[in-house]
Amino acid sequence: EGQRLWGSRYGRVSSMRLSGRQPVAAQSIAPASAGFTARAVRGEALSAAQGTTDFGEYFLYFSFFLVVSALLLAYLFFAVGLEQRTREVGLLATVGFAPSAIRRAFVREGAVLAGMGTVIGIAAAIGYGALIMYGLRTWWVGAVGTTKLTLHVAPQWLAIGAIGALAAGVLAIWLGVRQLSRRSARSLLKGDVDTSTSKDAPRQRSKWVAVALLLLGIALIAAASAGSLNPTAGFFGAGGAWLVAGLCGASAWLRRRRPSRPLARGLSGMWQLGFRHTAVRPGRSVLSLALIAFACFVLVSVGAFRKEPASGGDKASGTGGFTLMAESVAPLMHDPNSPDGRDGLGLESSDAILSSAKVTRFRLRPGDETSCLTLYRPTNPRIVAPGPGFANDGRFTFAASMATSPEEQANPWTLLGRKFEDGAVAAIADQTTLMYVLHLGIGDDFEFTPEGQPPVRLRIVGALADSVLQSELIIGEPDFVRLFPRHEGYRLWMIDTDPAAAAAVTSHLEDRLSDYGLDVTSTLERWASYHQVENTYLATFQALGSLGLLLGTVGLGAVLARNVLERRRDIGLLSAVGFTPANVRSMVLSEGLALVTAGTLLGATCAIVAVWPALQERAQAVPAGSLAVLLSAVVITGLVSSLFAVRLASATPVVAAIKSE
Fold first, then answer.
1. Do strands 425-430 and 383-386 pair parallel, antiparallel, or not at all (unpaired)?
2. In angstroms, rounded to a whole number, what is the distance separating the alpha carbons of residues 400 and 431?
3. What separation in angstroms does the CA of 426 have from each of 232, 253, 383, 445, 464?
């Protein structure tokens, strides 16, 4: 029926579908010379289904710090549990059990708990993945543009994760038992929880490791600045090295010899006493510090890329100074900036609404979406070409380009006129599109085959910094006319008008040019839709950091609670000699505040160092406001976890504590 309705004297079909296992070959005539385009649709579908970016890798990268935090927390909890059973270990050693036998007994006990945790973790992982997929289908649907997303659980990855988690947990347990079983039976029977008789040796090791890592970070930054190392790898490596160096430095500082110095009176003296208590168990304090620092490192490094709404009136902004953009179904042949052009479009030549607006026209060849709004890898991208005069307006900001001459560096848009001996066509694209969708860089080529034409190779000569033109690849108008002669006229308009008149211009154009199928949108809204996608993925990554923060909060609360239980005799003595409950609470709270503040500052500072090159390439400023709120939330969360220890200290019975002294 379709052939009957749309057939003509030239024939009744416009395409052929060739299927079968045998390869199809044209022996007598090349398909392109006959006006046919041979497409391997199955191969194109498989290629597109690979997706633009494997975000599973990013989840794996950011989960690294979460895994380390979990291992530190497992080690911390098991070590604290073993310290409560030191007399039991000492008794076993006294009656003749070998240290290896004691280690095996406790490792087997811990392995049972690790196995139970692994099973719970697998179920939690599936539930977490299902929750993320539900969020992408509902709350964050604007980030993916589709609700047809389902959870796919790969059994082999569950098995790998389970084995790795179980092995890591058992290793953490073994390290804790190994350290305890090395001590003498006499000290264990006494219930001595000191891990060593001298703090000087571990302090020296920590100090030299901190110095070595500090120098390594400086060397990485120097190599990245000199161009001999990738800046992203160099600065991220330096940030990670300095994070570990800071923890080692804290360990050395907590183990230093302290001079006998009297405390101040009143509340300040209790705060000083609380700060000094962080050095009583330096190992616990450093582990708590590491948990908070790792969580802040992930939260800040991800949150620094969050893009907040900005004004689009500046020509150097992501909107190029345009207020509106319009796209039509049918080509618009006339220039609306002139009275004759408006008359040719069926508009009043003296139209007051359009007279105050300046329209920049773009030729458009439809194709695949290349912005972050697509989940599929584009093989046939949208191509646009700006009209005459656009290159001299100085719109948008370039993140990088192939500019060599002073003229090109001053105006990289002139690179669209560059000619290459191998026939490649100069093209410009948005940096986000290049990095996450096309996976290309400056100087790389993108090749595709237009309908009925030989392959076209586009060479990237410039990258726009966070622009509203993420959906298109931009080439020069002469190249567009030569490559795509069938696409006549201009179908994309960029309109520069007063924001107050944007609504009037939109309704006026859509009403008068409805026969052309013109659709007008706000550039700020389109720009915000791209930011919504990026911020959504950043939010999912920050969720991993939030889990790390939860681990750090639990670990900090457990450490402070354990410290209070071990110092209950000290607390009872302080209460007996006249210190008020408020004094005791401030002492315990100051200990938690010191660890939380130090961990937050260390993690945030190293995170800024790690992402510094990427921040330098941003068109927007660093979201200092949101980062300040985020860090404040971390500090408040840590202080809330300290309240449990504060309450425990307040409930310490004075008489019973003194009797045990």
1. unpaired
2. 8
3. 27, 57, 12, 9, 14
Output the pTM of the full model: 0.69
CA 604, 608, 610, 614 torsion-angle sign = positive
Gyration radius (Cα) of the chain, Å: 33
Place of tokens 């989940």: 375
Beta carbons of 3 and 12 less than 8 angstroms apart:
yes
For the four alpha carbons of 456, 460, 463 and 466, in that order, the dihedral sign comes to positive
Amino acid at 290: A
How many other CB atoms are there within 10 angstroms of residue 550's CB atom? 17
Using alpha carbons, select from 498, 496, 522, 500 the residue that is nearest to residue 510. Answer: 522
pLDDT tens digits for range 261-308: 777 777 777 777 777 878 878 888 888 888 888 888 888 877 777 776
536 phi and psi angles, rounded to 5 deg = -65, -45
pLDDT of 95-149, one tens digit each? 888 888 888 888 888 888 888 988 998 998 899 889 888 888 887 776 676 788 8
The CA distance from 178 to 175, in Å, is 5
Are residues 308 and 620 in contact, defined by beta-carbon separation less than 8 angstroms? yes
Cβ atoms of 354 and 377 within 8 Å: the answer is no
